[in-house]
Design goal:
Layout (H helix, E strand, L loop, with lengths): L8 E2 L9 E4 L11 E6 L1 H4 L2 H11 L2 E4 L16 H20 L3 E7 L14 H15 L6 E5 L7 H12 L10 E2 H4 L4 H9 L4 E4 L10 E2 L2 E2 L2 E2 L9 H6 L1 H11 L7 E2 L2 E2 L5 H20 L7 H23 L11 H10 L1
Parallel strand pairs: 3-4, 3-5, 5-6, 6-8
Antiparallel strand pairs: 1-2, 2-4, 7-9, 10-11, 12-13
Helix pairs in contact: 2-9, 4-7, 10-11, 11-12
């Protein structure tokens, strides 16, 4: 029987979306708003044991929103027509779910890098995926403050799996004997390329391929653990052993969005949607500054900055209308918002 992924608890199923929770229970998290979401196809699901280590270490609830064969992307995956339609509908349901769950602040994304797509005009399969990832990430709500792409895993092969079986039966070491050339096993990941190309403080990539491969070979057994449960999905045991390394990599990138406070006070004073919009605006300003001005960044970045600015401006107007713009307002959200808008 095929080994299942790390367990999770089903929650609020929709027609195509099967959310299931893992990590720290919300009650145990002390009402903390920040939640992790793991999104993608089956190559996201097999990372759940590792992401759970991150969630538990950070005291955060987590939810899995994965669907087999359906990458989370603004592009059309090549599947039989009915499945193709379902994947498109599933993508829309995931975006709606993320929009309606403002507590989700961090996305972990991973997908099968070798999937084929209906090519975008003038683009090959790889560039179609890169453009599809960037377009989708830019369309996500401002409450998603961090997007973390986990590089897709190397692939095994039928020959390698059979070699491992025979080596174990003969009580021989299988790791190097049954390894594959790195160039054959490990493919370029368009989601990682998209993350690096965006150069956004909101989007990051984590590459754990060094735990699967050395400079020349990729191994089916590492540290005595089976790496794979089939030809391209990693075992739950191996995923869990990578949890501490995923956590370490996450800690390296999970610093607060630059300028976590402004002259009006710390961003922690803001409500979740306000803070997300403030961090969004600050991040987009930094990206424009690094590029040499707003004229040097894409129209999507300008639109996103304007949307975040509009949310903050409307909230400032609402607070002022309620008489909450003075210093007697204990948390002084108004002052923080105005400082972000004027920064």
């Amino acid at each position: 029987m095929l080994e299942p992924n790390a367990p999770c608890i089903p929650d609020q199923r929709t027609e195509l979306l099967y959310p299931c929770t893992f990590g720290v229970r919300r009650t145990a998290a002390g009402g903390r708003a920040d939640t992790i979401a793991l999104v993608g196809d089956s190559h996201a699901s097999h990372w759940r044991a590792a992401v759970e280590v991150v969630a538990e270490s950070k005291g955060m609830p987590a939810v899995s929103l994965a669907r087999s064969r359906c990458p989370f992307i603004d592009a059309t995956v090549l599947l039989p027509p009915a499945d193709q339609v379902r994947c498109g509908d599933w993508n829309r349901e995931v975006k709606a779910y993320l929009t309606s769950h403002a507590e989700i602040s961090t996305l972990f994304i991973s997908e099968r890098s070798s999937a084929r797509f209906v090519p975008a005009k003038g683009k090959d399969n790889f560039e179609t995926q890169v453009a599809g990832h960037i377009a989708l990430w830019r369309s996500l709500p401002a409450t998603i403050r961090r997007i973390v792409v986990i590089r897709d895993t190397p692939r095994s092969s039928a020959a390698s799996a059979l070699c491992v079986q025979r080596a174990f039966a003969a009580k021989r070491a299988a790791a190097r004997r049954c390894s594959r050339p790195r160039a054959e096993a490990l493919h370029s990941d368009p989601a990682v390329a998209a993350a690096r190309r965006m150069r956004s403080p909101r989007v990051h990539a984590i590459d754990l391929s060094s735990f699967f491969c050395d400079a020349e070979r990729c191994f089916p057994v590492v540290g005595g653990a089976f790496v794979y449960k089939d030809l391209d999905h990693i075992s739950t045991v191996f995923a869990r052993t990578l949890g501490p390394y995923l956590l370490r990599a996450y800690d390296d990138i999970a610093q607060p969005v630059p300028a976590p406070s402004v002259s009006g006070g710390p961003l922690d004073e803001l409500r979740p949607d306000e803070r997300a919009a403030a961090e969004c605006l600050i991040a987009e300003r930094l990206e424009a500054l690094a590029a040499g001005g707003w004229a040097k960044v894409g129209s999507e970045d300008v639109q996103r900055a304007n949307a975040c600015r509009t949310l903050l401006a409307n909230r400032a107007s609402e607070l002022a209308a309620l008489g909450l713009s003075g210093e007697r307002n204990r948390s002084n959200r108004y002052a923080v918002i105005v400082a972000v808008l004027g920064a």
